[in-house]
Amino acid sequence: MKSLCFVLLLAACVFAQGLNSVDRLFIDDFTVGANQHQVEIELAATLTENEQSVIDDASFTENGCSGLIGCSRDMRIEVFTGFANREFTSEIFDIPNGLFDAEWAISNPKTSSSVCTLQYDGADESFDLDITGLGGVDLTVGGTADELFFAAVSDIEIEYTILFYDVDGGICELEVEIPATPGAYDYDETFYLFDIDDFDNGCDLTDIGAIEIFLPSSDAVDAIVRQIKFVGDPIPSETPTGTPTRTPEPTASVTPSPTPAPSIEECMCHCPIFTCALIFDPDDDENNAYYFDDDDEFQVVGSNGSVVYYDFESGSGAAMIQASALVVAVIAAFVL
Questions:
Q1: Per-residue model confidence as pLDDT tens digits over 162-181
Q2: Which DSSP string do the residues of 288-331 spell out, in sequence order?
Q3: Residue 65 and residue 82: Cα distance in Å, rounded?
Q4: Cβ atoms of residues 23 and 240 within 8 Å
Q5: What is the DSSP string of 214-266?
Q6: Which partner from 4, 97, 122, 223 sits 20 to 30 angstroms from 302, CA to CA?
């Protein structure tokens, strides 16, 4: 019941905030190759600036995939300096029961310098860049995508560089600055949007053949990227739904929820539009849900989707509001 409570309320938050943007094109949601695609380097001896860098790379391809542009990803670590026995890792992980399904994690030691790279240029199983490998993808999706969504966290301030290559050799560049993430944070504090017009426009974004993402570092870094995609405003004929075609922007706190009382199941969710506690009473045969919001209003949500508000201060009940079928459908899609 507790997990159902959390998922249901989180779904409501996602729906509330996802109305203003629609997913148009995924670069990587990191589900392809999760727990399989990785690169690791352990220095056998101390490496100095005057020596040859140490390089390792790996590729992963899944034909007919979703969530990965070109259905293939090449990964590389290049180490320039570091002490003996120090480890450098770049890995794709599953995230069980998370808001996102997977993530790309990088870890580098102190007193070292290196660069981690992801390359998207089609299923060539090679780190040799093929600027025609993606076949001329329109990143604007016919003009419907106007921003790049980048979800990431880091223990220190870092900067990713993304290069977009068109099939004729033109290059667009975007610098993605990620501040140091606090120990306790809300998910929406780790979401970053970049307008396509802010790209260093030296390429044709409607005819892209390859993409590269670089993270250079000269200190210990623990960084995670959870999703990279192009998004845009809904067009009049579109109705947002509870499918993965929306930008998830809940602000569910990553800190633990308060311990519930023995007789009820409780979970917390914090959203820009409200803060509430959602409570299910197992003794309620009608499966009603009860909400407490910031205005000390007590809300009863009936099993038929109706909502009644009660003000604790006045003790009066406000008008009943019938929940729309769309909201019910969206929440059901997330929960089931």
A1: 999 999 999 999 999 999 99
A2: -EEEEETT-EEEEE-TTSEEEEEETTT--B---EEPPHHHHHHH
A3: 37
A4: no
A5: EEEESS-EEEEEEEEEEEEPPPTT----SSTTB------BSSPPPPPPTTSEE
A6: 97
